[in-house]
Design a protein that fits this description.
- This protein is mainly alpha-helical.
- It has 2 domains: 11-233, Tetratricopeptide repeat domain (Serine Threonine Protein Phosphatase 5, Tetratricopeptide repeat, Alpha Horseshoe); 394-671, P-loop containing nucleotide triphosphate hydrolases (Rossmann fold).
- It is 63% helix and 4% strand.
- It is built from 35 helices and 5 strands.
- The longest helix is centred in the N-terminal third of the chain and has 22 residues, at 2-23.
- The chain is elongated.
Length: 675
């Protein structure tokens, strides 16, 4: 008996010392201590487990796996060995094998909270969210210190997000370092698309405490995309990939963040890896298709769109994405499939709207304009119920801008802005030819085509954020000091820089909705160029009514609101032309299509750029284009869309009447186009 006690004491002492040395960072010395003991006692599973930890610390994972499997051969009934092997396999990206090992550990020791937690983490990495939540719930229920968190998670699973959020906050009050409570609370903020700044802060704190928390990195990437912190989002997904390079969610998230940041080629490559890992996920296939469309690979985009439909036949958004290629026409079988989906009456509202817009495009291509209008009109009416637009508030805001930007105000504040001549702003109404103008300019050796940048709008929103007197834009501009104008111009240049990928001296910003801010642009960036993209008003309105936007442009889903918006835009542009004569170049789409070289020379002269022949061959320019016109600007000019409104003249009588004062002033080449 005394001999056994001495052996046990020696085993414990050696194990304790080897563990201390390993924690001190000397894995080699710790391994030597383990092996010295194992020479005398080769069947000691405690030392075998510690030996595997030493091997893993030296990045010798295959040897560590072999050591643990040997230990299991000796004693298959020890839960900790199964758990260690499961952890190792998860890190090696062998998720399904890891799940089997961790479930074995739980069968042997159902009270092992760590095994439940590791199982949940592994299931999450595999994309099995429901199973992961169950595993996390079982883990939390085992931890008496996390009773509040377990109760909150139960509320969350039952759909009561408000009560669950308060429960997670209670758990954080009890333990401010509870990384799971941080993640779940951030998840609620993300799903509700509210308090995203708080969600980011929670996740960053959780990741400071648990840097290898894969689910938190994935959620952080999603939150950062919503906050338009696209470079940071890409970094978050890259970190997730280092933790698990087989995570489809991480690769797809990286693809989304890169594509949205303007790196369409990088986004397509990341999506390709996600599709390779799991080709049957419809949303990932759709994201891949969007990226391929942006870089001009229409054939590849269609293959991916159709793969998404095979995986989810009622995926209306994919059908609309195909229609949104504009130059694409549906096959008869695809039209029949869409009609069948609508006839079934089982679609959710969003899917039904997407199908109606897609069928509108299909009927338009078939010259069945009456049927096309019925689908478009039904889709618009349903979409209007889902979005917010206050036309009265818009009118009042535009009136305040006109009242503020008087000739006297503009003269008093001139010459104080940032003097960079780099930006070329293309404003106007959507679907009025702005992408064509951008493509022409981006074909010039001195101009980089970027995208519809959110930069200026974000700056305007931020201007009054910290004012105690609650003065808002534009009235607060009256308080600006000389240096403020320059500071905001510099801010625009700095915040637009991440959207640029070349060293060309000029770049475009083609967000149409910047038209109310022409006066502001003149003062903060006096050397910037501004172009107003115009098209026959009825063609512009029709183009918008036929377009289902992914986000924003909420004024386009009601015929009256769309007409009001156009008239308000028209009044503002008249104002800018009066108070800033010659500042804005008006470019009519009809002139561009019928007199290309003349129009190109006008545009380049206005920008102070020399004429280059390549601008006439804009369709040959290879670049990423994100807007709905992406495929159209990759083809030579055609006149088939001129005067398209005439095909729907019976349906748009209301617009013809409302816009009569504007229509009467159109130049002949615009008024008579398509006649």
């Amino acid at each position: 008996m005394a001999e056994r006690e001495r052996e046990e004491a020696a085993r414990a002492a050696n194990l304790l010392e080897a563990t201390r040395v390993l924690r001190a960072g000397d894995a080699v010395a710790a391994e030597r201590l383990c092996r010295d003991f194992l020479l005398l006692h080769p069947g000691c599973t405690s030392h075998l487990r510690l030996l595997s930890h030493c091997q893993q610390a030296q990045q010798r994972e295959p040897e560590a796996e072999q050591t643990l499997r040997f230990a299991l051969d000796l004693e298959p009934g020890i839960a900790g060995i199964h758990e260690d092997l499961g952890s190792l396999l998860a890190r090696l990206g062998r998720g399904e094998e890891a799940v089997s090992c961790l479930r074995a550990a739980i069968r042997l020791d159902p009270r092992s909270g760590s095994a439940h937690r590791k199982l949940g983490k592994t299931l999450m990495a595999l994309g099995r969210g429901t199973d992961a939540d169950i595993a996390y719930a079982e883990f939390l229920e085992l931890d008496r210190d996390r009773g509040a968190l377990a109760a909150a998670l139960e509320l969350l699973r039952n759909g009561d997000e408000t009560a669950a959020a308060e429960g997670f906050r209670a758990a954080l009050r009890a333990n401010p370092d509870n990384v799971d409570a941080m993640r779940f609370l951030a998840g609620i903020h993300r799903r509700q698309n509210q308090h995203l700044g708080d969600a980011e802060a929670l996740l960053r704190r959780a990741l400071q405490l648990a840097p290898d928390y894969l689910a938190a990195w994935l959620l952080l990437g999603s939150v950062l995309i919503e906050r338009v912190k696209l470079a940071d989002a890409a970094d978050a997904y890259r970190r997730a990939i280092t933790l698990d390079d087989t995570s489809t969610e991480a690769w797809a998230g990286l693809g989304n963040s890169l594509a949205r940041a303007g790196d369409a080629a990088g986004g397509a490559a990341a999506y390709a890896r996600a599709v390779e890992l799991e080709p049957g996920i419809p949303g990932v296939q759709m994201g891949y298709a969007h990226a391929l469309k942006t870089i001009g690979d229409q054939a590849g985009a269609l293959r991916a769109y159709r793969a998404a439909i095979r995986a989810k036949p009622d995926f209306g958004e994919v059908y609309w994405s195909m229609a949104n290629l504009k130059v694409f026409r549906f096959e008869d079988a695809e039209v029949a499939a869409m009609e069948e989906q609508l006839a079934r009456g089982e679609l959710d509202e969003s899917a039904g709207i997407h199908f109606r817009f897609a069928l509108g495009k299909a009927c338009d291509d078939r010259k069945d304009y009456a049927a096309a209008w019925q689908h478009y009109d039904a889709g618009n009416r349903r979409q209007r119920m889902l979005v917010k637009h206050d036309g009265v508030d818009m009118e009042a805001r535009h009136a305040r801008i006109i009242e503020t930007f008087t000739p006297e105000f503009l003269e008093a504040n001139a010459g104080n802005g940032c003097d960079s001549p780099a930006p070329v702003f293309i404003v106007g109404l959507p679907r009025s030819g702005s992408t064509l103008i951008e493509q022409i300019l981006a074909s010039h050796s001195q101009v980089e085509g970027t995208a519809e940048l959110p930069t200026l709008g974000k700056i305007v929103v931020s201007m009054g954020r910290y004012r105690t007197d609650r003065r808002e834009y534009p009235e607060l501009l009256r308080d600006f000091r000389r240096k403020d104008w320059r500071a905001y111009g510099q801010q625009y240049m700095e915040e637009s820089a991440p959207h640029r990928f070349s060293d060309r001296p000029r770049f475009t910003d083609k967000l149409p909705n910047n038209f109310p801010h022409v006066g502001l642009l003149h003062l903060v960036l006096p050397n910037a160029v501004i172009i107003d993209a115009r098209r026959h008003p009825l063609d512009s309105l029709l183009g918008n009514y036929q377009q289902l936007y992914g986000k924003g442009q909420n004024f386009t889903y009601d015929m009256a609101e769309l007409a009001e918006y156009y008239l308000s835009y028209h009044r503002l542009m008249q104002h800018w032309n009066q108070v800033l004569p010659g500042k804005v170049l008006e470019v009519n789409y009809e002139d561009t299509v019928t007199r290309l070289e003349w129009q190109v020379r006008r545009i380049l002269d206005h920008c102070g750029l020399p004429f280059e022949e390549q601008c006439l061959r804009f369709h040959e320019t290879e670049r990423a284009v994100k807007t709905a016109s992406s495929e159209q600007v990759r083809q030579p000019l055609y006149t088939g869309s001129l005067g398209k409104w005439r095909r729907y003249e019976r349906e748009i009588g209301f617009w013809i009447e409302e816009l009569a004062p504007v229509l009467q002033t159109l130049p002949p080449q615009v008024r008579d186009a398509g006649a």
